[in-house]
Amino acid sequence: MRRRALVTTLALLGLLAGGVVGCSAEENRVLPGSSLTVATAAPVTSLNPFVLGQDTSADRDFSALTSGSFWRREADGTRSANERFGTVRVLTRDPLTVRYALDGSATWSDGAPVDAADLLLTWAARTTHRTDAAGETRWDAGAGAGQGLDLVSQVPEIGDDGRSLTLVYDTPYADWQIAFDAPPVAAHVLVDLAYPGRYADAAAAKAAFADAVETGDLDWLAPVSLAFREDFRLDGDVPDAAQTTAGAYDIARIADDGRSIDLTAADRPSAARVERVRVRAMEDPAERVAAVAGGEVDLAAAAADQDLVDAAAAAGGSRVSARDAFDHLDLQTAGGGVFDPASYGGDADRAHRARAGFLTTVPRQQMLDELIHPLLADEALRRGMIEAAGPGPAASPSSTPDGEAAPATDAAGLTVRVLYPAGDARRAAEFALMSESASRAGVTLVDVSSPDWAHVLSDQPDAYDAALFAWSPDPAATVAHATVFHTAAAQNVYGWSDEEVDALVVDASSALERTQRDELLSRLDEAVTDEAWALPLFAVPQLTVWSDALAGPPAEVSGDRILATFTTWRPSSGTAKPGEG
């Protein structure tokens, strides 16, 4: 087995061979005249979130409204099959063989069918097998040699008169469920953007694309891959064709470079209930909550604090809950700072002692009691960074119960630069408590918060020693969440590297049985704890606030996934406007 082959950013499995992924195909009906304005935390930057750099949380969340998918997001955050779109069947487990079939009813907003050519686009873009790294055929969709869909080395087979695609994995792959889905953009649209006027219709464009992928014609694919990368950005004029959708909603208007987008329910099978949706970007959480309370917006979400909760009382409804996001502290081990072995002449053991000593100064219980319990009284400290369903991981480094810093002689004298999102009141309060505790152990914390913290996190490893922010793992993606700890993981921006950890990540990624996978993930949690790379804290309280335009509470949601819960939006009949729709 290629041990690096299974390192991926994708997610989880767990179905019996030969079983169809099932769910009810109950039809939801759109309420004529209904409308909803949803405030999001950031503008949409691209209509193609497959492309790296165009895959912000806002981009991915918006795509849930406009993209066809074999899966749908349930109210509890889990995924179930979307049989309105198609079916997924595991044909064999050895080799792992999965067939994706469309029933012929799925269409793009221009009337062209969603078919195997579109599904083939996902494979071409997310593997290295149709990329010329030294030439012009590149998709920038995160493909890596031996990772994710790259494990499907043979061209997937088109069947059922162009309505199915069958993938055969070279090795077992636990994350197959989210490794593959229908693309957010249409194959025939890409061809038309790359070769304007060359093909008579969508069918001819699709046939040309499928032929080029199957034969490996990289020269023909080069301009198609360029359109894939460049023509869906919202920082200028977006071609009309690039606004073609296959999801529950069609795009009616894009304004202010993606800061405001109007959508209408599509005339095709979906779970949509609201006829018209406006998505508005409001970066300030206080502004979002005030907009709902003032009747300007109907739905918003934000990380909760007491001021926001108080302001939300004037809205139609509000709720504080603990979702999937949790705060944690990551330590940078490769930026030349105090946790980098290079700072100690290559002495890895000394750097490890510095990390472990520092983490014991973090007053987790005090932070929980003072900052979280006023909002979520029953919330507990998070046990580990992964928290698989199997045996509990080893206890994470923590402070003593009374909030006093535990002995940390190996950290005494350190100056630790802590990065976190600037302007975030709760994280600033967390930093203040951490700084006070650390000072009692002889450790000095320096505030290096930044409004551009995400860029600093990934691109400036020498600018911080510890990063305080939230992870929001997909509930269906336990394995993917764990891959960050592998040496070769793209999202491992900290220089973390350990052979035992790498082996556990690979083994968990290839474990098709849940019991075995959870046991491996628990061992991985223990190994990560032993390395003192990161410290889990607690769930981030999430505030959801809505107006009377909704007949009942929407799904509990984090701010970066609010649009993905559109299937739970139930419009109030009193807000529908007769004669519209």
Your description of this structure?
This protein is an alpha+beta fold and 581 residues long. It has 15 helices and 16 strands. A six-stranded mixed sheet has the order 11-16-12-15-13-14, with helices on both faces. It has a four-stranded mixed sheet with strand order 1-10-9-8, with helices on one face. Strands 4-5-7-6 form a four-stranded antiparallel sheet, covered by helices on one side. Helix 4 (187-194) crosses helix 5, helix 4 (187-194) packs across helix 6 (218-230) and helix 7 packs parallel to helix 8. The protein starts with 30 loop residues before the first strand and ends in a 35-residue tail after the last strand.
Low-confidence stretches: 1-26, 390-394, 398-407
Distance between the termini: 56 Å
How would a textbook summarize the main sheet?
6 strands, mixed
Beta-strand content: 15-25%
Strand order of the largest sheet: 11-16-12-15-13-14
Q: What is the percent of helical residues? A: 25-40%
Number of strands: 16
Radius of gyration: 24 Å
Shape: globular
Mean pLDDT: 88
Would you tell me the structural class of the helices and strands?
Answer: alpha+beta
Number of helices: 15
Write a compact overview of the structure shown.
The chain is α+β, with helices and mostly antiparallel strands and 581 residues long.
